[in-house]
Amino acid sequence: MNPPVALTIAGTDSGGAAGTAADLATFAALGVHGACVITAVTAQDTTGVSDIHPVPHSAIEAQLDAVLDDLPVAAIKTGMLGTVAAVEAIAQRVVKLSVAHGSLSASQPPVVVDPVLVATSGAVLGGEDVRRAYVDHLLPVATVVTPNLDEARALAGHDGSPEELATQLAGLGPAVVVTGGDPAATGECTDWLAEPGQPPIPLRHPAVPTSNDHGTGCTYSSALAAHLAHGAPLREAAEHAAAYVARQLATSRHWTLGRGRGPIAH
Ligand code: PLP
């Protein structure tokens, strides 16, 4: 029997921790065939990002055409998009897909948006103009958005609590999971899931203290997309994705790869 297909639209990480390296490994581990549209090539290792080379717009469009014309994509995940043009192009493609699926009355693949703006190392992967493009164009057409607390604050424009941020961002249209809240206080992490028009729900899972966490956000959003591709409902997919990340972090917890912030296990 065929596996479900998930598509990642994201940047590369030459160090193999984040970006498409994490996405494709996570899809494979969760029984999903991964397709891959590259938006930017980054030069980076465990110590940081030393170069970012955006892929030309026409090449992003050509990759999208190739994949979407051929493969039965059951879920889409976006990671680092890097430029306003890329964010707008992906948003337009999502709208086009929903029109096409509407007229064919087939179900539209869910779109998981990981709003990558800043790397765990602090490198800026999208500036203010990119942040605005997410808010204005991509978030309103996404199925679910998965910011960490810093990204949620940047998108919302203030330092509210995770549940306030999740509720506010869900007001733009998508479901929202604000990930990774408050591990120090309780030994637990709390993700906040907000679906439009509903009160936010805390999703608790064990915290895994480690500095080998590069790629955690990518792994979470890919695991969420993989479970949605298998047909899981959103809350169940979010719980499975958090458990998967905790398991991978526990595996890489004591690794000593590189001189900087090491990778989460794939
Ligand atoms: N995508 C790319 C290409 C990256 O280089 C990074 C960070 O370096 C990310 C996404 C986000 O990484 P993380 O999952 O560690 O937040």
What keyword list fits this structure?
nine-stranded mixed sheet, binds pyridoxal-5'-phosphate, 266 residues, globular, UDP-N-acetylmuramoyl-L-alanine:D-glutamate ligase
Named at the architecture level, the CATH assignment is 3-Layer(aba) Sandwich
Ends apart, CA distance between termini: 25 Å
Q: Sketch the topology as an H/E string, one letter per element.
A: EHEEHEHEHEHHEHEEHH
Beta-strand residue percentage: 15-25%
The residue-averaged pLDDT reads 94
CATH superfamily: Ribokinase
Number of domains: 1
The profile of the biggest β sheet is: 9 strands, mixed
Can you give the helix content as a percent range?
40-55%
Number of helices: 9
- Low-confidence stretches at least 5 residues in length (pLDDT < 50)? none
- What is the CA-atom radius of gyration, in angstroms? 17 Å
What is the overall shape?
Answer: globular
| Bound heterogens, unique | pyridoxal-5'-phosphate
Level-1 CATH class name = Alpha Beta
Order of strands across the widest beta sheet?
3-2-1-4-5-6-7-8-9
The helix/strand class is: alpha/beta
Description of the molecule:
This protein is of the alpha/beta class. The chain has a single domain, classed as 3-Layer(aba) Sandwich (UDP-N-acetylmuramoyl-L-alanine:D-glutamate ligase). A 9-stranded mixed sheet has the order 3-2-1-4-5-6-7-8-9. β8 and β9 form a beta hairpin. It is globular. 49% of the residues are buried. The site of pyridoxal-5'-phosphate has 19 residues, from β1, β2 and α8.
